[in-house]
Structures are given as structure tokens and as C-alpha cells.
Specification:
The relative contact order is 0.09. It contains 2 helices and 11 strands, in the order E-E-E-E-E-H-E-E-E-E-E-E-H. The protein is mostly beta strands. A hairpin with an 8-residue loop joins strand 2 and strand 3. 8% of the residues lie in helices and 61% in strands. An 11-stranded antiparallel β-sheet has the order 1-2-3-4-5-6-7-8-9-10-11.
């Protein structure tokens, strides 16, 4: 057990792991990992082949603050607050490059903090799957004040492409319309960006 681990702004407490020695006979190091963070519990099965460079995670369950996303995207500030709830069937990294990802990520309790008071944006679900060597993303809202439809991909060379349509569910919601207009992105006839 490790009482406390910190990487960038991610803090984990009470980190427990259990090595599964039977997998050593097959040339794998495999262990289950459980930890706590201020945002919620983390759990995963981790494996690595003795002669390989890839790190594989299975059955990942974690809760993160949106600030963690800002760190990963190397952004100093994000005008959105909320929680990220990960439920991944698998994730694989090879030489610190993401090569496979399958599962869902929910962006819950989203709020635009530049509005006064902060504007509730709702929940967005992102379905993630790997096809060949490309990771595909599909985003949709969960009956939130903001209608979201989008898709994207992450290619093996690290190129990320994403297209999305965002619009207020209630066309009379002046605050959400103003938020979308403040992005200065082109809008269609329904006010979607």
C-alpha cells in the first residue's frame, strides 16, 4: 500500500495493488490497482508483457475533475467545470503513446463558469472505440440544456480531429445562446456552432 501519490495535479491516496503471480508464467506482469482521490475511487487491472513496451489497462473505472483534462491538454485555464467519469474496457499505451481505448467517458455536471451565475450545461457522454489503429469518439448529450452531437478520431501519428454541433435545447435560452456566440465560431440557422 502507498498512502499518497501525486502526479502533476492528480493526487491519489490509499493506493492498493495485488500482484497476480500466476501470470508471470505467461511472461506477463499483471496486478489489480485500487486508489482513492478527492474526486472519487479509481480501479483498474494493469498488465505488461515482460518483453514488450506496451502497458495495458482493463476494467478502468475512475472519476476526475475537469481540471485534469486541462492538464492533459496543456491548457492553463478551462471555462468549464465538472466531473469526468471513465468506464473503460481497455486502454493501451506503447512508449507513452495511446494506441487503444474502448469504453465511455461521461462529462457530468458541466458548468460554464464565465457566466454569472455559472450556467449549467448538463452531461455529455463520449463513446470511445478502437478500429484498426485509430481511436474513434462519438459525443452526445444526455437530455441536457445543451444539445451536443459530435465525432472525432485520434490517429497513430497523434493527430486529433473532431467535429461537433452544439446548440441550446431551448432556443429562448439567451444565456446559452450568448455563450455559444462568445466562441465566435460560425453558427447555422438554429444557432448551432
Amino acid at each position: 500500500e502507498i498512502r499518497y501519490v501525486r502526479w502533476r495535479d492528480i493526487s491519489l491516496q490509499n493506493v492498493h495493488w495485488q500482484l497476480k503471480p500466476q501470470w508471470l508464467l505467461l511472461g506477463q506482469v499483471r496486478f489489480s490497482l485500487e486508489a482513492e482521490s478527492s474526486q472519487g475511487p479509481w480501479r483498474a487491472t494493469v498488465k505488461r508483457y515482460v518483453l514488450g513496451s506496451a502497458l495495458h489497462l482493463q476494467d478502468v473505472k475512475a472519476q476526475l475533475d475537469m481540471n485534469v483534462l486541462a492538464l492533459l491538454l496543456q491548457q492553463a485555464f478551462m471555462p468549464v467545470k465538472g466531473q469526468i467519469v471513465l468506464e473503460l474496457d481497455k486502454a493501451s499505451l506503447d512508449q507513452n503513446v495511446l494506441v487503444a481505448l474502448d469504453g465511455t467517458a461521461q462529462l457530468k455536471g458541466l458548468q460554464w463558469i464565465l457566466a454569472n451565475p455559472p450556467q449549467h450545461l448538463g452531461t455529455i457522454q463520449i463513446d470511445i472505440k478502437t478500429e484498426g489503429d485509430t481511436i474513434l469518439f462519438r459525443a452526445k448529450d444526455a437530455q441536457s440544456p445543451l444539445i451536443v452531437n459530435g465525432s472525432g478520431s485520434l490517429s497513430p501519428d497523434g493527430k486529433f480531429q473532431y467535429q461537433a454541433k452544439l446548440r441550446p435545447r431551448d432556443p429562448n435560452n439567451a444565456v446559452l445562446r450568448g455563450i455559444l456566440q462568445s466562441t465566435q465560431l460560425p453558427q447555422d440557422a438554429q444557432g448551432a456552432i
